[in-house]
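SAMPLE LOG
Freezer: B-3
Tube label: C17
Construct: single chain, 106 aa
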Amino acid sequence: MENLKKQFGKRIKELREKKNYSQEQLAQIVNMEPRHISRIETGNSFTTIENIYKIAKALDVTMSSIFEFEHKKDFKTIQDEIIKIVKNSNNKELEIIFRIIKSIFI
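STRUCTURE (predicted):
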């Protein structure tokens, strides 16, 4: 659970900065204390589903997108997952993967 709180906090911070909001501005929009926003972003606190809804609305994102952490994986994890996908692909899927990669990089 600790890791989830940290990832959640980093994601909130990432989305907040993308909107060019300070912690104080976000706190004011969602009617929370700036200190609570800070504790959420550092992973030291979590919040209610109602507050997650308010934060998502303020940041103009879906609630589910707040929990999308895939883009923050380290290089080795991404590489391992790609290898696993390729190894577990059938011929048709492998052809599609190849075409996608080829269209992007060649």
